[in-house]
Amino acid sequence: MTTVHERVDTFHDNDQKPVGYGRMLRKEDPRFVRGRGRFVDDVRLPGMLHLAILRSPVAHARILSIDTSAAEASPGVKAVVTGAMLAEQGLAWMPTLSNDVQAVLATDKVRFQGQEVAFVVAEDGYAARDALELIDVEYDVLDPVVDARRALEPDAPVIRDDLEGKTDNHCFDWETGDEAATAAVFARADVVVSQDLVYPRVHPAPMETCGAVADFDAVEGKLRLWSTTQAPHAHRTLYALVAGIPEHKIQVISPDIGGGFGNKVPIYPGYVCAIVASIVTGKPVKWMEDRFENLISTGFARDYIMRGEIAATRDGQILAIRTNVLADHGAFNGTAAPVKYPAGFFGVFTGSYDIEAAYCKMTAVFTNKAPGGVAYACSFRITEAVYLVERIVDCLADELGMDPAELRLKNFIRPEQFPYTTKTGWVYDSGDYEPTMRLAMEMAGYADLRREQQEKRARGELMGIGIAFFTEAVGAGPRKDMDILGLGMADGCELRVHPTGKAVVRLSVQSQGQGHETTFAQIIAEEIGIPPDDIDVLHGDTDNTPFGLGTYGSRSTPVSGAAAALVARKVRDKARIIASGMLEVSVADLEWDKGSFRVKGDPGKSVTIQDIAMRAHGAGDLPEGIEGGLEAQICYNPSNLTYPHGAYICVVDIDPGTAQVKVRRFIAVDDCGTRINPMIIEGQVHGGLADGVGMALMEMIAFDEDGNCLGASLMDYLLPTALEVPDWETGFTVTPSPHHPIGAKGVGESATVGSPPAIVNAIVDALEPFGVRHADMPLTPSRVWDAMRGNARPP
Ligand code: MCN
Ligand code: CUM
User: Fold this and answer.
1) Minimum CA distance residue for ligand 1 atom 41
2) Is the pTM of this model over 0.90?
3) Which numbered atom of ligand 1 lies nearest the CA of 674?
4) Which residues are in the Aldehyde oxidase/xanthine dehydrogenase a/b hammerhead domain (predicted)?
5) Between 3.90.950.20, 3.90.1170.50, 3.20.20.80, 3.30.70.2740, what CATH number should domain 40-142+209-257+264-297 receive?
6) Residue whose C-alpha is closest to residue 295's, from 205, 199, 200, 201
7) What pLDDT, on a 0 to 100 scale, did the predictor assign at position 241?
8) Which bound ligand lies closest to the C-alpha atom of 384?
9) pLDDT tens-digit readout, 114-144
10) Which value does ipTM take for this structure?
């Protein structure tokens, strides 16, 4: 089913308050707008000490010696810890989420600029930071490997000589699709277009940096850890495995989080340092990184060097797509991706098109740069995949002299082909692409825009129109083939209805700004008719929520949202039995009417969910075999991912004198299935579109040849502001997921995935008079200028 009309399914309870899905102001915002949010840095415990980390000034060096004596004597300092000291406890290295190891504090070598070398614990943060300057480290500087292409050269310095028998910088190889079948299709195609593309290294740069407060109570033997984490339960299990503290003696609390964007999925050395420091000093210890540390050392995103090839018939039938990728993983493989998917979900690079064959070959390497890779609203690397396919489809349109919208419309997977198995093995659950594309074109006034462009070109003005159409795979994932370090990707949910009909729902996922306190209350409300205001959402505390893998890959709605709907239905099933007792009719004679059960054919006889809650806890008999109380818990294991899609159209103007790009209009039509809260969805889309403007035009973590990070402050790493973004024009279609209990698909990363190619396509389109087929992001004025002069250079 596809409709462009908003589902306004706000029914009313007895007080005429709207409940269920629909636009609703965020329940968390009164707290945030009054400055009452409680973030990790707001945690202040009695006797709390402060931790600061000494970081490597160079990208690659052997550590010859570390002298901590002056730092230890500095006023207020309680402890100075080096890698050698951690090594004595077996804590110098920790596992990453990708089956690699990462140094907590360097012992042998430093492998990227900003790597953790030592830490100081002191009475306050100033004393700790001052003492860092007194630590004397002697480095024997080695040649760094900064470029992924250099990493594979036979004479390149070996970065990971900590790994036994390692003699090169190779991280992993991966392939998907059918190489021979794809080659055969390419061989017989009328047209083959190939293009080199770089998706540069960028950074999620959330407003709140990463940090933790560790409080180890030696008497209880219990560790309490407040930390900036998107996955509190997974982190707890890993701490138990690394630190040897029994899991039930670890409580991870992720309080309010000031933006995550994937930056807060990995476990960082700083968290482990804070834990060690608390155990050593017997006091609570806070570690909070600054902006510089965040940008220089925590999870980056992208850094893929790709070659895209596309084969087609002369009349524009796309036959096959092939890609070769060189992936830069930095010094340690610290990405968070399901174990079977070392390249995340990059395998969906065939996009939204029905093609005959596809093949991807990837090589990942270590370099002397910070670890990471899966972050910044990437849906597990679908950002890279969508950029690849949507750019080369435009290159093909250019080659064929065909309109890029027409080319896409001609090649879409058709609605009757769903569920559709792609040539790389992904089963797209549902989709109806053409109406989404047509709506975007209608909103944009596509034909008029093309006419306007022609007129402008005749006058020497540079105007471009860019299209991107994407399909995402979100909601990892079926636990049979998806896990993070052995933990199956399912999520729990618990719902308790109190005697007076108010409720609390406990989630294993964790909001970083996505509005879960609102939308999860709405899901429960829709199912059991208790108004969202009467439902509290608890998350981010492992002692008080059921186990589950957390928020990333836009999995909260696909996985936990399903869990919430199903747990509510379980409660409703029990409520039905209690209602049958109260109304003295059989269960089969009852019908559910949005908040109450009534006797079929006798609408006057009914009981509300609130009446039932009181009876469930109150005096009087309950039906045979029914226990008191009104609550339930489940663990939801998704049967497939959900596949949202969208059509984006961007209009840019370029100043021919300065090469400055202005994004004049941006039309985004998203289809995330059933929409729970359209206002929140729009907020997610607006944010993601701004991300896209940032990546397409200005963001890049760059390095010089010595491995010095050149994007380590927000003066150099440019983020878009209200000045650079247009008024977004959003629309939607609704193609519900057939396997999700409420038909919802994720949307949190869609716009970040879909917008960069739309903007780059628009810029390349604007530069058509200069014969430009491609230019790499970020398209700063100097890059655009170079492209106009025929020397587009890779980053
Ligand atoms: N939603 C809805 N109807 C749908 C789908 C989603 O109303 N059909 C609502 C959800 O209920 C939720 C929000 O939209 O309130 C996002 O839902 P979902 O797509 O499930 O994504 P997650 O909640 O799992 O959020 C994760 C996603 C990721 S991975 C990144 S990265 C990112 C993003 O969310 N980080 C964010 N958006 C962010 N937004 C903010 N403000 N801060 C971040 O750190
Ligand atoms: Cu890839 S960023 Mo989000 O999945 O947390």
Assistant:
1) 513
2) yes
3) 8
4) 34-143
5) 3.90.1170.50
6) 205
7) 87
8) 2
9) 999 999 999 999 999 999 999 999 999 999 9
10) 0.99
